[in-house]
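Q: What would this complex look like in 3D?
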Amino acid sequence: MARLHSREELEQLRREILARRDPGQRCIATCAGTGCLAGGAADVVEAFRRELAARGLTDKIALRGTGCHGFCEKGPIVVVDPEEIGYLQVTPADVPEIVERTVLGGEVIDRLLYVDPQTGGKTVREPDIPFYKHQQRLVFGANRKLDPRRIEDYLALGGYRALVTALFERTPEQVIDEVKASKLRGRGGAGFPTGVKWELTRRAAGEPKYVVVNCDEGDPGAYMDRSLMEGNPHAVLEGLLIGAYAIGAHEGYFYVRQEYPLAVENLGIALRQAEELGLLGKNILGSGFDFTARVHRGAGAFVCGEETALLLSLEGRPGEPRPRPPYPAIQGLWGKPTNINNVETWANIPRILNDGAAKFAAIGTAESKGTKIFSLVGKICNTGLVEVPMGIPLRDVVYKIGGGIPGGKKFKAMQTGGPSGGCIPEARLDLPVGFDELTRAGSMMGSGGMIVMDEDTCMVDVARYFVEFLTEESCGKCVPCREGLRQMHRILTRITRGEGREGDLEALEQIAETAVEASLCALGKTAPNPFLSTLRYFRDEYEAHIREKRCPALSCKALIRTWIDPEKCRACMLCLKKCPTGAIDGGKQRIHVIDQAKCTNCGTCFEVCPTKFGAVRKLSGVPVPPPIPEERRTVARARKQDE
Amino acid sequence: MSDVPLRIDGQDVTVPEGATVLEAARSAGVEIPTLCHHDRLAPYGGCRVCVVETEFRGAWRLVAACVHPVEPGMIVRTRSEKIDRIRRSVLELLLARAPESAKLQDLARRYGARRDRFAPDASFCIHCGLCVRYCAEIKGKFAVGFVDRGIHKEIAFVPEIAARECRDCKECFELCPTSYLQAAFVLAESFAFPPPGERSGAPGPAASSGETR
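A: Here is my prediction, written as structure tokens for the whole assembly.
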């Protein structure tokens, strides 16, 4: 494509692209995000390509690999446009039928539709699936409509119009005012007002100034930044360009973790295409504004998501946080004023310029505006990425969008904010989602992880797990974080092993206060949250572990015994055959008994025992009943015959 | 550079712009304990034993004096129940690592820190980084550095550099607040360079002291 020299040439190109497109044209859109690709989406796309070629339809039917749609639980996802018929868990074997019946015949294939697990009802159109219906996908929605490797797709959706508005119709100060008026707060976790940050960087003394995209997403289970970066890289780039213009920066960096190869690849393609069109480089669209952007691959340290550590890593130094102040806005990359924002923050910018700050600020709570993308994972029916308006109650996210807890289990807690976030209990589920609301409840927004836990989850073990993650990911520079987490992890591990003692909770609280108050960076300051929030809402579980050596969730292996209820056992031999340690004694028509000395509490017998019997039980805090006498071990049915 | 007025423990102090709270306190004769600080090295902010409270919008907040820059009109207090409690806690965490360090024991007495508050995990290194930073910033040799991160973080000499540079330097030894470095280096040296006549199988602490020094 030829380089564009003016806004008029950009609009001309957009008109040409749109003129070539028929909105009623059939298009097969397959999700080509990392989740669906792992599920085999590449084979599905290839099967479509071959099927269309074999039928001579290559020119008539459009085939598109799109960004992540979000409903990763049910991937690979295929949507047939223009009707938006949504097919889930599609395999290459389904492809000929989809082409024959749906693409050519206009028929819906029932078995590939979404089935409501409660009612059994089916949903034809993708947007009508309950998972999507209750979302407000203002940032993430475009993923589904475009091929991230084709800038034409982004332009067809109105892409780079916001950049034109900024460059030709607004002064940098006006852009900053607009972003300030939108009350957009940073999506990376801390929630600092974006417009204020931009203004600080713009006014800071020193040249050159830098802008940076933080795509060092490190929370276990969280992947919204990855899906935006790989699914719609031009939206992030457009936001960055607008920010750079407002701040007065001519150089920018994308810091993307190496573990996100598709994001790195798609971003690289996007940058090359933007450069070809003159949307990057010297004198962008003839506006006189110059900007270059580079991609830096991070080596995968969680702590590099912290802005000062990220900037040092970008300079080629060890990724360890340094004290603030000075803040990066004053002294950042190479000591120069630097504005660093999260992927999702940048991706919100074009929308604010296009729709106006008022429209953005109309969504949300008093202090948290707009929408937020969360990654909803754990013990939840509909795993995936969800974009919801700020202020939505957590309950709606869990039940309306997430579809509740699988296996008829009870909800216990939702962990928000990543490893150093906190756990919100059932009693607080009506909490509206927002930065300050979550913080007041003892958790945090973080970058948007939501891990759902059911009644089988031990909250002491959850705290131990997250603290363990942080002991590995702490940079180790300051004492409260490094030594505090070491001791915290040690004490929590002891408690889950049934070796807790009086005074442990006080010691943990002492360490927690020290880490919160005296750590160098946000990692250490928030690291005690998993402990503090579980203690706040589930203190009884800690006390049961320490005082009664009992795990109420029947989860901590050292505190449970597995036992077969002789009244319920039907001597079916299933558990006996599967037991990996040969701990189960019994036979056909002879009630099974577990030899407690050999049992490792692996849970295999518990899982294989048929639900209709439910004979295998976990016991905690109570003695295992003595084995029944040998003469009573013949099962009831056989006993009748004997008599 | 203009001067910045501030108040530390009720005393009015004026220091040049860009000074740290620690420098301001010392200029006024107010003592703040430190472990990882050294006047000739860039501020580090690792040990956190120098925490003090500053007033910010009516609320007191904790900052590390060695790295926190002074601000005009700043109000600082260097002792309070909370400050002492945090310092005590930091010392107790460090005593689990280096229970024999005289410097830690001295501070522990002042703040009532218990040696056995936390389970011992003695490595004798408290990761203050003085040796690492001195070698890099003052000597420009980079013979000693940190390896790994989090709770696995340790210091280690780079053999290729240490073999060439360390024998006649050893200036980092006296900086070490736990004597770990000296012990480790001497031990390593005694293994690597046994004096003539010693059997290589029987190195000991005495072996190196009689050597080339």
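A: To summarize the key features: The domain at 3-111 of chain B is CATH 3.10.20.740 (Ubiquitin-like (UB roll)). The beta strands of chain B are 3-8, 11-16, 51-56, 59-64, 74-77, 144-147, 154-157.
Q: Very helpful, thank you.
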